[in-house]
Design a protein that fits this description.
binds zinc ion; single chain; 10 helices; 4-stranded parallel beta sheet
């Protein structure tokens, strides 16, 4: 071949190869819930591609292990889930069917966020007749931003373990996130101070960590047992109980049917507050920062004025 012609071809081909490289993510992450998908994106930037199994309007306890999810789990380098038995009804099947050895429990490609925080509501004995009780404690850890900070440190370390070539990049992204996140926690905590001590009713036991963080007091739960839909008779009992132990608001997650909370709201004369619960649960909860901006704003807006 004419050497000049060859060098022209090389010149033409070079930019194409160069452009093709950055599109190849170093890590394929499969997140069970939107909050861990959002966190993986914060900590991985362009080095990761993230696929999220559920959206904010789905109940994360009850997902079908559909073929499309199995295919996504098959191609993952890392699965990032809550753990603490939240996904016990679907994730084990999904992992088994994926045939992906890298992401099985005990492997570095299997990350359970709840392993890195102190769990609340650990039952002294597990009795399944008490409903969908989680033996390893309340799994809804993402409602306290301090937990997100702990999980972020662990997840960034896991990225570096799985992809050591980019360890420095992951450390930088984590440091940047941690700095912005700690600042935001300070702001949210200060803004939410007037909520401290407020007695509230929950539709599902979904907010133990939120209440622990902000000092809210859960005086009743609309589900008769965790995961069991509120019944008319149980709602009446809660309404009766509130006469002696009044509450200031009833709180439910965006994925839940609002009717039980709305019923209590109209009968007890207290506001029903929808909180996003995860990224995407409300228009304001566009990312992890928005999740807590909006949660705090909604609780403050429902607070009775002195
Ligand atoms: Zn639950």
């Amino acid at each position: 071949m004419n050497p000049r012609f060859h060098s022209i071809l090389t010149l033409l081909a070079a930019p194409i190869l160069f452009l093709a490289l950055p599109a190849q993510a170093a890590l394929h992450v499969f997140a069970c819930e939107p909050e861990w998908g959002a966190l993986a994106q914060e900590l991985g930037g362009k080095l990761v591609d993230v696929s999220v199994a559920t959206n904010a309007l789905q109940d994360p306890h009850q997902i079908q292990a559909k073929p499309s999810l199995i295919v996504r789990a098959r191609n993952a380098d890392l699965i990032a889930c809550t753990g603490a038995e939240l996904e016990i009804g679907w994730l084990p099947v999904l992992l088994q069917q994926s045939g992906n050895a890298k992401v099985q429990p005990g492997q570095p490609g299997n990350f359970a966020a709840a392993d890195y925080v102190r769990k609340l509501e650990i039952p002294s004995q597990v009795d399944r007749s008490q409903g969908d009780v989680h033996a390893s404690g309340n799994p809804h850890i993402q409602t306290d931003p301090r937990n997100i900070a702990l999980v972020a440190t662990a997840l960034a370390a896991r990225f570096a373990q799985l992809d050591p070539t980019h360890a420095d990049d992951y450390a930088k992204l984590q440091a940047s996130f941690a700095q912005r996140w700690l600042q935001a926690i300070g702001r949210w905590t200060a803004e939410a101070a007037p909520l401290r001590g407020t007695p509230v009713v929950s539709q599902h036991k979904a907010f133990a960590y939120l209440y622990n963080w902000l000092g809210l007091k859960e005086v009743a739960v609309l589900e008769p047992k965790p995961g069991v839909e509120p019944t008319a008779s149980h709602l009446q009992e809660v309404l009766e109980a509130l006469k002696n132990t009044p509450a200031k608001m009833v709180i439910y997650a965006a994925y839940q049917d609002p009717r039980p909370s709305e019923w209590l709201s109209s009968h007890a004369g207290i506001p029903a507050v929808k909180v996003p619960f995860t990224v995407g649960g409300t228009d304001g909860a566009k990312d992890l920062f928005g999740l807590f901006d909006d949660t705090v704003a909604r609780l403050l807006a429902a607070r009775p004025r002195p």
